[in-house]
Write a structure and sequence with these properties.
It is a single chain. By secondary structure, this protein is an alpha/beta fold. The protein is 49% helix and 14% strand. The chain is built from 9 helices and 9 strands. The chain has a 6-stranded mixed sheet with strand order 2-3-1-4-5-6, sandwiched between helices. Strands 7-8-9 form a 3-stranded antiparallel sheet, with no helix packed on it. The longest helix is centred in the last third of the chain and has 98 residues, at 321-418. It holds the Pfam family Septin. This is Septin.
Length: 419
């Protein structure tokens, strides 16, 4: 390699130096994301499924330390209805738009065969609304209120005898649409020994029926240990309360019974704290991400496939969205043209049939007219003959009458002369 002679700088030329005003790097990106997220706020949507009276509203009040002022539901509703309410919450400088969707009348019907249908339709409706917003030419996803459900808290009746058929059927229908966390409601009605057996039986029945519930992620080293531990506590046995009881020098959220007090936030009494930590503090963002990356993607893929869109053609070669759209548009236009031609041919055939029918009717009318005309002519001829005969008879009658009169007059004259 040839050497390059570099001319040394002249002594009289001064080098200009720039002073850095601070640290330069991209390690501030997380801070930028945090600031942007805090500025925009967060959205979290919870679906509560369970029979009426299991304490769904009370647990929501306890989880977010707020009184949502929900009205009690009756037990005589003919069908299951979903009632969603959105609340604006703020903790420190973080704003959360929380939507709580409750299943009103779930499990109250005699025929529970279609109890899950209203829930499935509601979840699909939220996915469809988001998909339609995505497919718009002018999208506004930043200002769009995302109503997709991020987690489903399924409340299990504390019977101690395993899951009901409606529980298994409903969770099986929803496990590909939403993150399901099973919860044993009103766990203070079961003893600790029975509770552990009840939890084991629930998990065995879920695994035996192929129901996939939400598992807390263990791929993040910072939360893998605690999430792995919490996965072994599912389903959570929880107790909710809107009452505060003074215990010692503290006022705690608890339920007062004649035999004692059940403290909601005491981990030796129930799993309320575990549920709150996993649901709100540790894994809320993972549920939001999994809803978008897994459940919504499955729905989106299925809907686009139903619309006829695909990523590859018959030869397994990539196909752009525009090509698929043009093919669908051409096929649609060809189908419309074919239907138009069929309708035109049908119209022409119907016109021809109508013309033939009208011509046949006209021919029948002409034949009927000719027959009436012929009958009229024959009747007129008969009447003329009858009239002529009557006239002839009248003339004959008058002639005979005249002859008779003359004969009588002659006889009268003869008698007169004889006298």
């Amino acid at each position: 390699m040839a050497a390059i002679d570099v001319e040394p700088p002249k002594a009289e030329t001064a080098m200009r130096t720039l002073k850095l005003s601070g640290h330069v790097g991209f390690d501030s990106l997380p801070d930028q994301l945090v600031n942007k997220s805090v500025q925009n706020g967060f959205v979290f949507n919870i679906l509560c499924i369970g029979e009426t009276g299991l304490g769904k509203s009370t647990l929501m009040d306890s989880l977010f330390n707020t009184n949502f002022e929900s009205s009690p539901s009756p037990h005589n509703l003919p069908t299951v209805k979903l009632k969603a309410h959105t609340y604006e919450l703020q903790e420190s400088s973080v704003r959360l738009k929380l939507t709580i969707c409750d299943t009103v009348g779930y499990g109250d019907q005699v025929n529970k065969e279609d109890s899950f249908k209203a829930v499935v339709d509601y979840i699909d409706a939220q996915f469809e609304a988001y998909l339609q917003e995505e497919l718009k030419i002018k999208r506004s996803l930043s200002a769009y209120h995302d109503s997709r459900l991020h987690v489903c808290l399924y409340f299990i009746c504390p019977t101690g005898h395993g899951l009901k058929s409606i529980d298994l059927v409903c969770m099986k229908k929803l496990d590909t649409k939403v993150n399901i966390i099973p919860i044993i409601a009103k766990a203070d009605t079961i003893s600790k020994t029975e509770l552990q057996k009840f939890k084991s039986k629930i998990m065995q029945e879920l695994q035996a029926n192929g129901v996939e519930i939400y598992q807390f992620p263990v791929d993040d080293e910072s939360v893998s240990e605690v999430n792995s531990t919490m996965n072994s506590h599912i389903p959570f046995a929880v107790v909710g309360s809107t009452d505060f009881v003074k215990i010692g020098n503290k006022t705690l959220r608890a339920r007062q019974y004649p035999w004692g007090t059940v403290q909601v936030e005491n981990e030796s009494h129930c799993d309320f704290v575990k549920l709150r930590e996993m649901l709100i503090r540790t894994n809320m963002e993972d549920m939001r991400e999994k809803t978008h990356a897994r459940h919504y993607e499955l729905y989106r893929r299925r809907r686009l496939t139903q619309m006829g869109f695909t990523d590859v053609d018959a030869d397994n070669k990539p196909v752009s969205f525009q090509q698929t759209f043009e093919q669908k548009r051409s096929a649609h236009l060809a189908e419309l043209q074919q239907k138009e031609d069929e309708m035109r041919q049908m119209f022409i055939q119907r016109v021809k049939d109508k013309e033939a029918e009208l011509k046949e009717a006209e021919k029948e009318l002409h034949a009927k007219f000719d027959k009436l005309k012929k009958d009229h002519t024959e009747e007129k001829k008969r009447l003329e003959e009858l009239r002529k005969k009557i006239e002839d008879d009248t003339i004959e009658f008058n002639r005979r009458k005249q002859q008779t009169t003359q004969s009588h007059h002659t006889l009268t004259l003869g008698k007169s002369k004889k006298k």
